[in-house]
């Protein structure tokens, strides 16, 4: 079997409402659908979410690097030779989500070629994954209403609170309101998206002590190396790396330098192969992990579920799997369902992301 053709299809789907966080705001899912065609007729699929304000990738740059660099280098290679593919991709620095999608699409090809689900090939640990829901920048009472609605409608009991782009007093108030309104059995954690200094993060943790917050994600920029180390040493809850750990090498640096003591894994930026490297590094060091979200569509969410549910360590915590509910539509032929706070692993071979061709034709960017 050989890779015959690689196609990058840009498309745009509007959000029901803007998604806001400390590092930016998005109103449209301007993603890229990746398809890897083989000479046997098997096609692997993956979704690519640009994050220009975080990683510098745009829809146009993703299409360009795939068409101009990755496709010419990969055509003719055996999809099963994943390490050779990885070595080829690593000749080009950065472009993490484009690389991650190539890897996921190749795993999809391998699954279909062998008749096995990628979930089982990766480890096949659990049949489903618990869902964490992201709470954005709203007044504390509105955040509580949203959390309560997701609890009653979807059975979600874990919530990420976005913080860091407003006065810290408002973030602290939101923490108190959510804990009081949701009770002790609901898990709450924070994500500042590099929106604080280390000292501001220390102050927030001091004023929320006793609320039972699970952990704090990416409080300040990785360049604040001494500040991050001081924060980790003083914090009574784990400090997780996200934007600071986009590769296995970055994760190693942050963990060994004391910049964080937990790792967020996102299949959209490390695919399945490098995500396993990050996972192995973390478990070897006794470090907790959880599955994050790259503002994923349902296609990307399926990839997260498949990887997260396949491994014991990533199944311990709820994964961020609900962002697709903020999108007006999706390309997936069989929509995902959140039931009793969980998403089931899709049945059948491959990753399990079948595309609705009519929707793709409708949302693809003109001329693509």
Number of DSSP helical runs? 14
At the fold tier of CATH, the topology name of the largest domain is: TIM Barrel
Strand content: 15-25%
CATH class of the largest domain: Alpha Beta
Helical percentage: 40-55%
Number of strands: 12
Low-confidence runs: none
- Give Rg in angstroms: 20 Å
The CA-CA distance between the termini, in Å, is 27 Å
Architecture of the largest domain, according to CATH? Answer: Alpha-Beta Barrel
Give structural notes.
It is a single chain. This protein is α/β, with parallel strands linked by helices. It has 2 domains: 3-115 and 356-363, 2-Layer Sandwich (Enolase-like, domain 1); 120-344, Enolase-like C-terminal domain (TIM Barrel, Alpha-Beta Barrel), CATH 3.20.20. It is 40% helix and 21% strand. It has helices at residues 59-74, 82-89, 96-114, 118-122, 140-154, 168-182, 198-207, 225-234, 248-257, 267-270, 273-284, 298-310, 312-315, 357-363, and strands spanning 3-21, 24-38, 43-48, 128-135, 158-162, 187-191, 216-217, 239-241, 262-265, 288-291, 319-320, 342-344. The strands form 2 sheets. Strands 4, 5, 6, 7, 8, 9, 10, 11 and 12 form a 9-stranded mixed sheet that branches. Strands 1-2-3 form a 3-stranded antiparallel sheet.
